[in-house]
Amino acid sequence: MKLEELARNARQDGKPTWLTLSYQLTTGRGLWLPGLSAVRAMSAQAGPTPPFSALSVSHPATAVTHVELYRPEKRNAMNRAFWSEMVDCFSQIALDSECRVVIVSGAGKIFTSGIDLMDMAANMLQPEGDDVARMSWNMRRLVAKYQETFSIIEKCPKPVVVAVHGACVGGGVDLITACDIRLCTQDAWFQVKEVDIGLAADVGTLQRLPKVIGSRSLVNELALTARKLYSDEAKSCGLVSRVFPDKESMMAGALELAAEIAARSPVAVQGTKINLVYSRDHSVSESLDYMATWNMSMLQTQDLVKSAQAAMEKKSPKEVLFSKL
Hints:
Layout: H1 3-10, H2 18-27, H3 35-42, E1 55-61, E2 64-69, H4 80-95, E3 101-106, H5 117-125, H6 132-155, E4 160-164, E5 167-169, H7 171-177, E6 181-185, E7 189-191, H8 205-213, H9 216-225, E8 229-230, H10 231-237, E9 242-244, H11 247-262, H12 266-280, H13 284-298, H14 302-312
Helix pairs in contact: 1-2, 3-11, 4-6, 7-8, 8-9, 12-13
């Protein structure tokens, strides 16, 4: 059977697989991805990337950075190192002109089991301070520090695609709601677990989830009961935009999506993300004013001229060479 036919048969409900990626690479049509080898490499990292101990960072395709939660033996539980390393990692990515889009995933059998209670107990249960006021002040500072771990994803001007397989528990929901595009496998499930361990979720879920899925009633149900939300319901409520049969096809889909984004003008893409985030938290009038101020300089980019010329010549955006940003 020809590769073209295999690729066509491999698509399920319009979702890409490694075969479609390999076909596009071989024929020169569509995307500029390294096909199956890149997909497998994304799931076969040797370990954390120094100086990180809980993250593996790689570059599977041009202008694409892959950040993988890498504590598979601990089900990617979020230990103290993770909370600081995410801030360092995304601060670097924000300034990296080579990167135009980010993919986040988890190593091993699941995406993440959430906070590492054993590792974090000392910080959470024994705050420093001589009295209640000082202990409370230090606890507030600690919570704010942990909030920044996921807010940094939202602040990063590069679009972030998160790919979830298996369980996504507690802090995992905080993480994915700060991302721009969410994908998952059929076996994925999500759980706002905090009420089961005696606390209210405090690093983003209660603030972002209502704006992600739109149903206040469903958010309340999930947060107050800690029940599991499975992939079919996650898709129907808008938590994720696509569901894939397995992790390999999901990572191929994430790569294809990332390549589509990376092929566009970084001025346009990053400006779009920044204004989408701004408009979520402001009125239409305020957001239009912010947009006008933004574009009074950004419309003067050469990317606009290049894109318009490519459109007139019936070229794909992938054929346009945009400068780094």
